[in-house]
């Protein structure tokens, strides 16, 4: 699953690679690379997302795209590394994404909180582009 939401210079990108090696402990789970730009801050991080969490996220994003109401959360296996929600705002006229992402580097926490609105068409395009693919 790949997502990209943008509003001006605010950006959220999620690129997931599903681990397909059955000998690896994260078999079936997704290694996620996250890029964020918000209010002049930028960052890139990575984390693991459980297969079920990613599948549920994708399913509920599909429902949000159709109904234009509700909130869809996603968290990484370590919820400190990625926690976000996509939700309908303005009676579904726009969507928003908000959350936090980061990780420990050399004993110091590096992270970013973010949030912005975006047009619902961006979600529809992302879901259509990756329809029928793996989570």
| Helix count from the secondary structure assignment | 2
Query: Main β-sheet: number of strands, strand sense, barrel status?
Result: 4 strands, antiparallel
What would you call the shape? globular
Q: Could you tell me the strand content as a percent range?
A: over 45%
Topology:
Blueprint: E1 2-7, E2 10-18, E3 30-38, E4 41-49, H1 51-67, E5 71-75, E6 82-89, E7 94-105, E8 108-118, H2 120-129
Antiparallel strand pairs: 1-2, 2-3, 3-4, 5-6, 6-7, 7-8
Your description of this structure?
- With 135 residues, the chain is of the alpha+beta class.
- The protein has one domain (2-129): Roll (Transcriptional Co-activator pc4, Chain A).
- Helices cover 20% and strands 51% of the residues.
- The protein has helices at 51-67, 120-129; strands at residues 2-7, 10-18, 30-38, 41-49, 71-75, 82-89, 94-105, 108-118.
- The protein has a four-stranded antiparallel beta sheet with strand order 1-2-3-4. A four-stranded antiparallel beta sheet has the order 5-6-7-8.
- Strand 6 (82-89) and strand 7 (94-105) form a beta hairpin.
- Helix 1 (51-67) packs across helix 2.
- The longest helix has 17 residues, at 51-67.
- It starts with a strand and ends in a 6-residue tail after the last helix.
């Amino acid at each position: 699953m790949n997502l990209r939401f943008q509003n001006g210079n605010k950006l959220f990108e999620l690129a997931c690679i599903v681990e397909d090696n059955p000998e690896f402990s994260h078999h079936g789970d997704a290694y996620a690379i996250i890029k964020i730009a918000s209010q002049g801050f930028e960052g890139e991080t990575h984390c693991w997302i459980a297969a079920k969490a990613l599948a549920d996220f994708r399913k509920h994003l599909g429902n949000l795209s159709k109904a234009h109401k509700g909130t869809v959360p996603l968290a990484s296996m370590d919820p400190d590394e990625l926690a976000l929600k996509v939700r309908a705002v303005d009676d579904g006229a726009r969507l928003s994404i908000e959350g936090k992402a980061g990780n420990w580097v050399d004993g110091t926490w590096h992270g970013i909180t973010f949030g912005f609105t975006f047009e619902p068409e961006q979600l529809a395009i992302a879901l259509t582009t990756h329809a029928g693919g793996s989570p």
